[in-house]
Specification:
The structure is a homotetramer. Chain A has about 210 residues and is of the alpha/beta class. Chain A folds into two domains: about 45 residues, Helicase, Ruva Protein, domain 3; about 110 residues, Dna Topoisomerase Vi A Subunit, Chain: A, domain 2. Helix content of chain A is about 40%, strand content about 15%. In chain A, the strands form three sheets. Chain A has a four-stranded parallel sheet. In chain A, strands 1-2 form a two-stranded antiparallel sheet. Chains A and B meet through helix 5, strand 8, helix 8 and strand 9 of A and helix 5, strand 8, helix 8 and strand 9 of B.
């Protein structure tokens, strides 16, 4: 196979890209000057050296000064008594952008598909139990001796409100139950833009249960 | 204007119907036999005699034996201490289908548009305050003497989670505040199918606040 | 079944209308005043008396003075040497609007589905052969004695460029071949908005064959 | 700006890619193993050395043995009397896949936007007139002495049937008129899937004009 088709094949693996758009990507690159191509190539070459996974929460972050932990995990002002489990980096980003949460995170690495014969996914189940184990008792941050961390008091399972998310939530609950820590899930209800007429039973039930006095 | 175009004009007023589909409706009717046309014509002719608005909640219902009230309003087993205000009949239907609510309803007749110079809409504001006034004190159902109704203790404003719905909710709160009754709104949060990554700030905030221990 | 659901059932048969929109139609009618409902009902009641099928081309037209033929068939200035066979009234309307054709029409009443066990459709096959038979020899218009009609010299099969249209075209060719009249089909090629990149083989082939010198 | 956002910025320039998908591309790359990344990086690095533009028709092709011309331009069996001008490589590919054309090509490099103040585009106008000039008289292929090429007798302007395509076609006609060669454009008509009812006037006009006897 020639260069064109080899490159198109690689682009086809990009999320959401079909064969036609993969080819358009190659033609696009052919139309760009060498400067653009060199920058692209270099960024891809250095990607895994520059962006690494946090040793604590497993999100990706730009490494600076050989830091092992991301800015959130290294931040002494974040509340260590709460741990929010999200499926992926972009979920964490959305939550951070909302500016509503001050606790810590754990990036699970995906959700477990409801229908799947074997666990082909690579969820960080062991890493999660390790993370929780380390946090259930008060501790002193090694790096900054003297500052005491609050022990973990609540795990918030923040998976999406779809079948895979709910299935994963159920598995995690079972897994984490022996820690005797409060485990909570995100509230269900009407999301922004929801119309009553089209809401399903589960949503209406939660909306009614979670109704708030004004 | 000829019959064809007159009829197409009327169909164009149907919700969601453009000029092309309005014409297709006329051609469709031309293709049907006289039996179908007669049934359609007769049902339309009798519509307003057969389907009337409930004198209590203003939903439409099939009149039987000159009943003035719909089956929900006439049902002595529904909880009279809760009144849910919905924008339209289909919202009420969705809530009934969910089987989660045992109280009474009030159909407001729409929502108030956020941007609107004058109140051209026909919301049943006066009817709502009358309805609430009648229900704040314990009463005896006239038709079934002896059965005591619970006084109204909570008004649930169940408008959609969009700008018009929220605007209407705010207006109703102001309007109803002097009754000194608990006023609540449906809970916000992740609705079924919501993905964290795409959720807006308001939804995430509510989802976090309404999180439930499992 | 009650009035509401009976009427919704009838609306569900309208082209392109699902159960939810059918219900919305009923709620819409309930919201309209009696004047609108009466006009709608009356137009439906009189529809088949006011709009009839042309005895010559079978298109629908508003009957005036007990006319048996539509304005096109009655027009002495239209070219009787050309007969365009279209599937339905709206196709004829599109062609008339283009202002490109001066001949006569025949509305077939649909196309024949490529996969269909028996001929459940009601194509006007017999009526078409009758129509052609009557026109192959010069004749005198009975109603306007003295005006001689041109004999039919070309039948243009103007079906859509999709499988059903092509299948029907093939059937009609076979059917009409013994008349020894020129039979033509609409030209294929790039239609307005077509992009070369996405054009299929058949379209490109025709576009190449039908290329025009400028 | 950090590596992540720099790379996302470059992906945003890819055709059809918005900011969100650009980010997903970076996360996707972070999830892939080094092997994939190295292959991708290497293919991009070598792209412009391996894939070059044909010196004759300007399409991109995989260079082999320092060939200056693509396989079509180098093919002695292609008809040199016809030259098809297409906007871009993918148009040429679509035409080749249809297997209907045996002549030569010229890739213009785009179309000229109808509304554009200055000619910021890089259409190969000069290259096209050079190409035509060289071909109007019979010549001998230098590389394969003795084989006589047919002189150019027809230029087929194969631009898309949209405003920009038509505008470009008009410009090219004016530009090429002094060569006194036949200039043709692709045939217009019903493209595959076209329905008569929705066809515009221009398409119906061409479909009628280009109708073919069967």
């Amino acid at each position: 196979m020639d260069t064109f088709n080899k490159l198109a094949e690689l682009f086809r693996q990009f999320p959401g890209i079909g064969p036609r758009q993969a080819k358009r990507f190659v033609f696009f690159l052919l139309s760009k000057d060498r400067e653009y191509l060199e920058e692209l190539q270099e960024l891809i070459a250095n990607l895994k050296d520059h962006i690494v996974q946090c040793g604590e929460c497993f999100r990706f972050f730009q490494r600076r000064n050989d830091a092992l932990f991301c800015s959130i995990c290294a931040d002494p002002n974040r509340d260590t008594s709460e741990l929010m489990v999200v499926a992926k980096d972009t979920d964490l980003e959305a939550m951070e952008k909302s500016n509503m949460y001050q606790g810590k995170y754990f990036v699970l690495g995906g959700t477990r598909a409801l229908v799947e014969r074997k666990h082909a996914d690579k969820l960080r189940i062991q890493e999660l139990t390790d993370r929780v184990s380390r946090s259930v008792t008060p501790s002193v941050i090694p790096a900054k001796a003297g500052i005491q961390r609050e022990p973990l008091r609540e795990i918030i399972l923040a998976l999406s409100a779809n079948p895979d998310g709910e299935h994963t939530t159920d598995e995690l609950k079972t897994l984490l139950t022996h820690f005797s820590i409060k485990i909570s899930t995100l509230g269900r209800g009407l999301s922004t833009g929801s119309e009553l007429e089209y809401a399903d039973k589960e949503t209406l039930k939660s909306a009614l249960k979670n109704r708030s006095e004004s």
